[in-house]
From TrEMBL:
<dbReference type="InterPro" id="IPR038550">
    <property type="entry name" value="GPCR_3_9-Cys_sf"/>
</dbReference>
<dbReference type="Pfam" id="PF01094">
    <property type="entry name" value="ANF_receptor"/>
</dbReference>
<keyword id="KW-0472">Membrane</keyword>
<dbReference type="InterPro" id="IPR011500">
    <property type="entry name" value="GPCR_3_9-Cys_dom"/>
</dbReference>
<dbReference type="GO" id="GO:0005886">
    <property type="term" value="C:plasma membrane"/>
</dbReference>
<keyword id="KW-1133">Transmembrane helix</keyword>
<dbReference type="GO" id="GO:0050917">
    <property type="term" value="P:sensory perception of umami taste"/>
</dbReference>
<keyword id="KW-0297">G-protein coupled receptor</keyword>
<feature type="signal peptide">
    <location>
        <begin position="1"/>
        <end position="17"/>
    </location>
</feature>
<dbReference type="InterPro" id="IPR000337">
    <property type="entry name" value="GPCR_3"/>
</dbReference>
<feature type="transmembrane region" description="Helical">
    <location>
        <begin position="676"/>
        <end position="697"/>
    </location>
</feature>
<feature type="transmembrane region" description="Helical">
    <location>
        <begin position="566"/>
        <end position="590"/>
    </location>
</feature>
<dbReference type="GO" id="GO:0004930">
    <property type="term" value="F:G protein-coupled receptor activity"/>
</dbReference>
<dbReference type="InterPro" id="IPR017978">
    <property type="entry name" value="GPCR_3_C"/>
</dbReference>
<dbReference type="Pfam" id="PF07562">
    <property type="entry name" value="NCD3G"/>
</dbReference>
<protein>
    <recommendedName>
        <fullName>Taste receptor type 1 member 3</fullName>
    </recommendedName>
</protein>
<feature type="transmembrane region" description="Helical">
    <location>
        <begin position="602"/>
        <end position="622"/>
    </location>
</feature>
Length: 767
């Protein structure tokens, strides 16, 4: 007996499935206050490109998620109407329309929402404060590009609009969109989560693809700007078409896969809705793209249609972020009951009467496909669909209306409320939905955080496995993730390695973040992690190759204990000893004709000047200073002049005797005896005057030399005024040159003492 009964049930079920329902009539209900709804019941517009007249645009393929979101709004409003604490005694109505994911389609019901209550016309007024539009608030639409169009319209009338899916960062601008709200977070939060995920796994060589719409372009733009600040290199960035009926769409998808394959990346970040994402994944499977890690978003990662693509497991590993959302209690039972009711004639008759009260002939709901589906057709999507954002959006409007009307928990006055009066209460007051508190932030958005989802395959069955979460920080349970690699460990995707301390990034090739690690050269240091340059050390510092810091230079000058100093002092001592022996010998034989002929006491003065000249070498030993630098030149010039002045007197004497014998008796007394000392004093005074000019024009001063030695600073004396230097030492040169002219041509007998030859030889050594 059971088999015939089972066959009977199946036959009745099959007959019921073939029979059209009245589900499409469930999206309009009259009420005290009407809330508009914009939902994507369908996709694939049918007459948009060929449209030459301003006729309505429709779409032919049912979008199950959009249907479930619309049922979520209906469920929330039915709950509120049955509530005894929220808007007690007030009945909310609703009026929902199809957007087909197209701004052109969404505009028609949006204009209808703006019509004056009870009419089909929009009043043109100077002041819309008392204007009463058809709806009190609007829920939707889902996509950002649709919201940017509709939010401008509703923003002019300050009608609250609460989207359950638009996440574009541009919509955070409350000046441009003053009455726009959303129960999802901005794409900026999502992008930050994706960047943290990439950093956590060390993936810094990636490709990013976005759908060519407001969502894809906006999210990808945010991602590129944030990724650049986190050392993530974008090997490829591209957009894929959203209109898959375009003849060029297939070529664009092929080019995208080829370019991704050429980059050799292992990670692909995909910002796209389910349709373009599915098209890209199908193309990658057809072209045999090697297994990758695909990082997605809620826009496609939870799509059963995408997951049911043939051979989808071959794409590799899929990770993605979805919004944290609780399940709405009672919703699945509500939908199941509704699908039972829409098959009953009495229920359908009542629904059509309600539609008639809403002037349903003005704009059609455009969900004729809704009447030809069963609960079984949507059950898989119903289990995974994120319905809470729609549910919260409806409750946000209901709570604002509750406060605007001045309702209590028991009663609610039915007063005339303008739409703009709700904005104050939506901006400032939190509200509670099923025990969870919500509040719109300063950008009119909410952020409940994200869950990290992993596509877990087991025996050909897909499970959306939560493996982490993100709100203020990112948590990942890596033990639950099984990657497509042989050892199931995370793959690597790096264009570069992190440089070691002391190395900088030397850019190579086309990509700015693809580089070699190069050691910092001498006298530079590594100042920041992943720096592209090395910082030069300060002038008084040095550093070795591949250094992370600079060191102060040690001072270098002629120390007393250095071998060169010892050699110099030894030579000086020998020279002074020879001078002293000569002086003793001259002093002992001072009155002899030979000593008197060579100059007598003038010779002792010359030897004394030479002794001082030798001792002046000590001024070059030890740490120099400005005073030492100045004294060095003055002492050298005066001591040398003291010696040359005696040569000068003797040279004049020789010249008078040999070249001007007839004048010698008259002039010799000026260069001999006591008058000779007068000439010596005159020479010294002249040199002193040049020394004064030297001090006035600019004496030598201490100059640190940082270039000659690699790790030390050489303390040297440098000439400040070359004119003063030339005057002071040029005078001695002139005296020496006169002595040379007076003595080098003098001829004497080889058996006689030749003082002229001695002076000539001394002057040549000086030159």
């Amino acid at each position: 007996t059971m088999v015939p009964n089972l066959l009977l049930c199946l036959s009745f079920g099959y007959a019921a499935a073939l029979r059209p329902t009245c589900l499409s009539a469930q999206f309009r209900r009259p009420g005290d206050y009407i809330i508009g709804g914009l939902f994507p019941f369908g996709t694939d517009t049918i007459n948009l490109t060929t449209r030459s007249e301003p006729t309505s645009v429709g779409c032919e393929r049912l979008f199950v998620d959009g249907l479930i979101w619309a049922l979520g709004m209906k469920f929330a409003i039915d709950q509120i109407n049955n509530s005894t604490s929220l808007l007690p005694g007030v009945k909310l109505g609703y009026d929902m329309y199809n957007t087909c994911f197209e701004p052109v389609v969404a505009l028609q019901p949006s204009l209808l929402f703006l019509t004056q209550n009870g009419t089909t016309g929009i009043g043109v007024l100077c002041n819309y404060t008392d204007y009463q539009p058809r709806v009190t608030a609007v829920i939707g639409p889902h996509k950002s590009d649709l919201c940017m169009v509709t939010a401008k319209l509703f923003g002019f009338f300050l009608i609250p609009q609460v989207s359950y899916g638009a996440s574009s960062e541009q919509l955070s601008n409350t000046e441009s969109y003053p009455s726009f709200y959303r129960t999802v977070a901005s794409d900026k939060n999502l992008v930050e989560a994706v960047v943290l995920l990439l950093n956590r796994f060390g993936w810094n060589w990636i490709a990013t693809v976005g759908s060519d719409d407001e969502y894809g372009r906006g999210a990808q733009g945010l991602f590129l700007s944030i990724a650049a600040n986190h050392s993530i290199c974008i090997a490829f960035e591209g957009l894929i078409p959203t209109d898959l009926t375009d003849p060029k769409a297939q070529d664009q998808l092929e080019d995208t896969i080829k370019l991704i394959n050429n980059t050799k990346v292992n990670i692909i970040v995909l910002f796209a809705f389910s349709q373009p994402a599915q098209a890209l994944l199908e193309q990658s499977i057809r072209m045999g793209l090697s297994e990758k890690v695909w990082i997605g978003t809620e826009a496609w990662i939870m799509s059963d249609k995408t997951a049911s693509t043939p051979n989808i497991q071959s794409i590799g590993t899929v990770l993605g972020f979805i919004m944290k959302a609780r399940t709405v209690p009672g919703f699945q039972k509500y939908v199941a009951d509704l699908f039972t009711y829409v098959q009953q004639d009495k229920f359908c008759q009542e629904s059509r009467e309600f539609n008639h009260l809403m002037n349903s002939d003005v704009v059609d709901t455009l969900c004729k496909e809704c009447d030809h589906i069963s609960l079984r057709n949507i059950s898989s999507v119903l289990r995974h669909s994120q319905m809470q954002p729609v549910y919260v959006a409806v409750y946000s409007v209901a709570h604002a209306l509750h406060r605007a009307l001045g309702c209590t928990h028991h009663t609610c006055p039915k007063a005339s409320i303008k739409s703009w009066q709700l904005l104050h209460f939506m901006n400032t007051f939190p509200f509670t939905v099923n025990g969870q508190s919500f509040k719109f932030d300063h950008t009119h958005g909410t952020n409940t955080g994200y869950k990290l989802i992993f596509w877990s395959w087991k025996n050909g069955t897909l499970t959306y496995l939560p493996v982490g979460d993100y709100k203020d920080s990112l948590y990942i349970d890596k033990s639950q993730i099984r990657f497509h690699t042989a050892d199931q460990k995370e793959p690597t995707s790096e264009c570069f390695r992190h440089c070691k301390p002391g190395q900088f990034k030397q850019i190579k090739g086309f990509h700015l973040c693809c580089y070699d690690c190069t050691d910092c050269p001498e006298n530079t240091f590594w100042s920041a992690k992943d720096s592209t340059t090395c910082t030069p050390c300060l002038e008084h510092q040095w550093s070795p190759v591949r250094s992370t810091r600079c060191y102060d230079r040690s001072e270098k000058y002629l120390f007393w204990n250095e071998p060169l100093t010892v050699a110099l002092l030894t030579l000086m001592s020998i020279t002074i000893s020879l001078i002293c022996l000569t002086a003793v010998l001259f002093l002992k034989n001072l009155e002899t004709p030979l000593v008197q002929a060579s100059g007598g006491k003038l010779n002792l003065f010359a030897l004394f000047a030479l002794t001082l000249l030798c001792l002046s070498s000590c001024l070059y030993i030890g740490k120099p200073s400005n005073t030492r630098c100045m004294i060095q030149q003055i002492v050298y010039a005066l001591c040398l002049n003291g010696c040359f002045s005696t040569f000068f007197i003797k040279s004049l004497e020789i010249t008078l005797v040999t070249e001007f014998p007839h004048c010698a008796p008259t002039l010799l007394h000026w260069v001999t005896r006591r008058r000779a000392w007068l000439l010596v004093a005159l020479c010294l005074l002249t040199e002193c005057s040049f020394c004064v000019c030297y001090l006035h024009l600019g004496p030598d001063h201490l100059q640190p030399d940082y270039k000659s030695l690699p790790t030390e600073v050489l303390l040297v004396c440098t000439t400040q005024s070359w004119l003063a230097f030339a005057l002071m030492h040029g005078y001695n040169g002139c005296v020496a040159f006169v002595c040379f002219l007076c003595t080098f041509m003098v001829r004497t007998s080889g058996k006689k003492y030749n003082i002229a030859r001695g002076i000539t030889f001394a002057i040549l050594i000086y030159f």
